[in-house]
Design brief:
Elements lengths: L4 E6 L7 H11 L8 E6 H8 L14 E4 L4 H13 L4 E5 L1 H7 L7 E4 L4 H55 L12 E7 L7 E9 L2 E9 L3 H14 L3 E4 L2 E4 L2 H14 L8 E9 L4 E7 L5 E4 L2 E4 L17 E5 L4 E6 L23 H8 L9 H15 L10 E8 L12 H5 L5
Parallel strand pairs: 1-2, 1-3, 3-4, 4-5
Antiparallel strand pairs: 6-17, 7-8, 8-11, 9-10, 11-12, 12-15, 13-14, 13-16, 16-17
Helix pairs in contact: 1-5
Length: 434
């Protein structure tokens, strides 16, 4: 139905005088520059057309209707109901008694008597026609917006699927399970802030007497940072073949090689990461660490937390960077905690909030200290990590963390006989608590 055509629908009993009673006088009184074309049909024909209108879709393209009905109330209500459901703009003319009963009708249909003034009717229909043109433009824009939204929803669903796949691929780079080593316990917390993480950890046996461990944090968040962790995992060299034997590399050399690999890649300037890599010599429980711009690991010992400071810049910045290393003994009841900087903002306080960010604070240290409670138990690190994970989950804001969080705990459970004392750089070089 064209918007330049108005419809006059009448009961069959009124059809003979409809032209002279309404169509011609309304055309003559039309307030616009040119009167529209009027199509005269019966109200049954109108209802058949209205039933084909898709609710909420075609209504804006439907022209106003002048409907004159000389019928009983049930039929009038049926017509009103259909016009309301299809949002058809209409002026309904009824016998006097019926019009009086329905004047307070609030469904948007104008009700008047069959002898209503035709000049007034012309103004009503003209106003409805002007409004309908505006509704048609709004409806068209809405349809375009909904179509675009449908396309965006499809793209978003596709992105969600791809991110789920990326998360699954990234988790394949992580250890399926931590190694079981007599006299040593491992525990880990791995909490990405989104689908994928810019953090990485690894614990693996390098030979019969050595366990290597790594924690790393790519600069940034989301997919770009996750891609850096994947490249880091692939580039990690912990051993080299010398003749017929494999030799375990020193932690400082592992970071040296990793850094050179990062710097040699194209677009290396966009690929930075912090890391701590270390080894445990199992017969002596001697730990050797090297760091690359990462938060210092904390050694929990006898109520103290000892920072294991290492010198070394971020990976991927300087190809000639030098990484040093420190060594210490992991004694019975000791727990070594490595973490990414997301932990520093995981327990926000009122003083740590700004308008757009949460600043690092020292609340996390209180929770790290609690990890030492399990140091005398056989699964010390695993239990300690579990307790810290519960604290993270129950803390305010845990559902919307602002950074990836990874924690790696390594414990030497208490034993009945004391381990053989050795030279302990942790006690000499880091005697001051963090």
């Amino acid at each position: 139905m064209s918007s330049s055509t108005f419809i006059v629908a009448v009961s069959p009993s009124l059809l003979d005088r409809a032209m002279s009673r309404w169509v011609e006088p309304i055309s003559a009184a039309w307030p616009g520059a040119e009167a529209p074309r009027f199509e005269l049909i019966t109200h049954d024909e109108l209802l058949a057309r209205v039933e084909l209108i898709r609710p909420g879709v075609d209504f804006a393209a439907t022209p106003p209707v002048l409907l004159a009905i000389d019928a009983h109330m049930p039929e009038i209500f049926r017509v009103l109901s259909l016009l309301r459901d299809r949002l058809v703009p209409a002026v309904m003319l009824l016998p006097g008694d019926a019009a009086g009963a329905l004047r307070r009708n609030r469904d948007g249909t104008i009700v008047d008597t069959l002898d209503a003034d035709t000049t007034t009717l012309a103004i009503m229909l003209h106003t409805l026609g002007e409004r309908q043109q505006l509704l048609h433009a709004v409806s068209r824009d809405l349809h375009l917006a909904q179509s675009s939204q449908g396309g965006l929803r499809g793209e978003m669903d596709k992105i969600h699927e791809e991110l789920h796949l990326a998360a699954a691929v990234q988790r394949e780079l992580l250890p399926r399970e931590l190694p079981e080593v007599p006299g040593t316990s491992f525990g880990v917390i791995y909490k990405p802030m989104g689908y994928v993480s810019g953090d990485l950890y690894d614990v693996r046996k390098l030979d019969d007497r050595t366990v290597g461990f790594l924690i790393a944090d790519a600069v940034g968040h989301g997919v770009p940072a996750a891609l850096v962790t994947m490249a880091l995992s692939r580039s990690l060299e912990t051993r080299e073949r010398r003749g017929d034997e494999w030799t375990v590399l020193e932690p400082a050399e592992v970071l040296n090689r990793l850094n050179r690999e990062f710097c040699s890649r194209p677009h290396a300037a966009q690929r930075f990461a912090t890391a701590v890599y270390g080894c445990i010599d199992l017969p002596t429980m001697r730990v050797t660490l090297a760091g690359a711009g990462h938060p210092p690991p904390l050694l929990l010992r006898a109520g103290q937390r000892l920072r294991q400071e290492t010198e070394g810049p971020l990976l991927g910045v300087f190809d000639d960077a030098i990484f040093d290393q420190v060594s210490f003994d992991l004694r019975p009841s000791d727990t070594l905690v490595l973490y990414t900087d997301g932990l520093e903002t995981a327990f926000p306080t009122l003083d740590s909030f700004t308008r757009s960010t949460t600043k690092a604070n020292h609340e996390y240290l209180k929770y790290i200290e609690k990890m030492a409670i399990h140091a005398r138990e056989g699964r010390a690190a695993e239990l300690a990590a579990h307790e810290l994970a519960l604290a993270l989950d129950h803390h305010s804001g845990s559902l919307h963390q602002i950074d990836d969080i990874t924690v790696l705990a390594i414990s030497c459970p208490a034993v009945t006989s004391q381990a053989k004392p050795g030279t302990d750089a942790a006690s000499k070089a880091s005697a001051q608590a963090a």
